[in-house]
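Problem 12. The chain below contains 418 residues. Write out its predicted structure in token notation.
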Amino acid sequence: MAKEYKDSGIPWIGEIPKDWRTDRAKTIFVQSTTKGNERLVLQSATQDRGVVDKDTLEGVVQVAADADLRTFKTVHIDDFVISLRSFQGGFEICHNEGVISPAYTVFRLRKKSYTGYYRLLFKSYGFIDKINSLTVGIREGKNIQYRDFADMEIPIPSDVEQQRIAEFLDRKCGEIDEAIALQEEFIEELKAYKQSVITEAVTRGLNPNVKLKDSGIDWIGKIPQGWETRKIKALSVFINGFAFNSFDFKSEGEMPVIRIGDIATPIIYEHCVKVSAPKELSPFLINRGDILIAMSGATTGKCCFVVDDTIACINQRVGIIRGNKNRFLYYTLQSSLFFEYIMLNSAGSAQPNISAFTIGDYKIAVPNEGEMIEIADYLDNKCTEIDNLIAIKQQKIEELKDYKKSIIYEYVTGKKEI
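Solution.
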């Protein structure tokens, strides 16, 4: 017998099964502001793992060692946490007992019940779109407000139906996640292959039958006869960025400033901070053919090649490597050898960083100018091929993620039945 439907009266939900109901979220959930816990372990909200022990996460800022965790908010297993600012919904379920920063919002079901259905509802695209529509201006810093969520109408099937939906979707989403993981594995393999191609080309050249000689440098090993080794500073000049003060930055101005987060090829200029352009900034302007390099942070050593003539300057955490052999040099800085050098010389601090001196002192294998051009041309083509394959895999991942959100929405709103 076909299931009967009714109009929920709520645009983002649409039709629901006749035996379902809708109600405001605040009738189902209650906000919690209690502090402390028997297990005083700090938690953090993640979009892919839910709320987990913060010390299991890499690259996140930890609280001060002397912070009194008894003053932090209590979170219990199956509580929900609103993860401040998020375009992916930001509603995460807690998997452990612990405490979390007072900046987060914590809420839970009013009555002890199965949480799996709501965990999935909060990941459906209809719910996420609705939440984002309530947080207009989020890019300017507006957080997701609990009161906005509390006043939302949400679909509510019976407890039995909730469990059936959650168990089915967990299995289905698990299959999709496995497919995503496989695509991600392919991407990592392609990235590793790309780096091996680059490293081989900039240390051995393109002729597999060339005679080799010892370079005299442990990390390079053998190089083709006729090549030499030289320090980067012998082939280029290094320009440190301008140390801006906070008052230099304005909502409108005459010049973009490139920060470490903007380092990409091509550079995404619209994401740069705008500043006024005093004459003293002229030494820090980028030129076509420059190499930009991140000097600190998690991406220390990341480079990009400037491919256009856009006028912009760099801040103090970005460096410019400028020379007439930069196409070949750029690929040398993409090799596994350089990444290992960066890791060796920037490790051991809470904020990794590298100096202009350390970069300039890095020794590379150097062919004649004609061979440099030949290698750079080859790598331009080869890396483009690999990047295109990576883009195809990335597109597949995005399609799988969209499909996952779509089927979650179809089942948590009753459009499809199990």
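Discussion. The radius of gyration is 27 Å. Students who got a different answer should revisit the alignment rule from Section 12.3.
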